[in-house]
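pasting for the record
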Amino acid sequence: MNKANTLYIKHVNVFMEDNVVKNGHVLIEDGIIKEVYKEVEQPESYPARFKIIEGNQMNLIPGFIDGHIHGAAGADVMDATEEALDTMAGVLPEEGTTSFLATTITQSPENIEKALKNVANYEGKEGHAEVLGIHLEGPFIEKSKKGAQPEQYILEPNFEIFNKWQTLSGNKIKTITMAPEHDKDGSFIEALAESGVNVSAGHTDLDFEGLKKAVSHGVRQLTHLCNAMNGIHHREIGAVGGAFEIKELRAELIADGIHVVPEMMQLIHRNMGSERLILITDAMRAKCLPPGDYELGGQPVVVTEDRAELENGSLAGSILKLINGAKQMLKLKQVSIRDIVEMASVNPAKQLNVIDRKGSIARGKDADLLLVDDELNIQYTICRGEIAFEGEE
């Protein structure tokens, strides 16, 4: 891929933080956005060595951030190898993902610790998606809402264990999915939230009142909204209704039309708006591979053309590519490319406290960029200034 340390992207609609610069130009040096020029503006001088990308009036948007992904292309975070993370980081730019959280699953402490140490020691590669840290999904969850999480390894919240794991990870655990009802006095949530961890309620049996209490302790997110939680009932609006009503919450959404049907996606967007939704994949190792027999967390998984399921029929993560989830959302009423940018780039960057360098196009930020047409077909994915993927002409 491109090895020039400077890129100049011309004639694009630049989706900035507060506006769209029509027919603009963007100069990138050493992986950083150096300047955004309006139509008639040009750099005073050009570097000696640079590459020009002709944008042809397409859209330049921030790269996507997948805050919840277990695997892709045959690799899984729980493999606990450098090769597995390399494989994931190498293939994800094809779907517009320029950074992600390596997501663990409920497993034995020994296997979780191996995965955490592997991420702690991992050094990313040029032209690959960046590993921003770890999403610890489980093991502090509710058994009745376990979904595809192996029940035999579920634990009660334990601050001593979490502290040990955070140390082993090199302080890279950025998000934790847990069942807040198992933290009876809220002290576990409060301690994690105060330390800067994004606490997400998921695989939980919370009702609406319980969710409000959890938010008072520091929960600020819901994991894969609608899945592995209580839905809306006319006498108890549950966690899903709570997502609609509690403005402090953002919520992950697997927009594959399977985990959440399109009609529910429309209802969710109408009630929460783009400013509180975070698009994720929750993808497992079979993503990018043919249908067949795979595994997740040591459990057999059957993968068909559109989904991954355990033997009992429970969904086992997804095989969704993030760009396809974005395209599904774009089909909804009142959803524009600007909304997609908010849900797939801005919101996850804010939730993970990396908005100072990720999630939007601005001078001085990392050059994580997508050049897309109006239907979100990717022409280029750029990871920290390096061309990581080129679409077909």
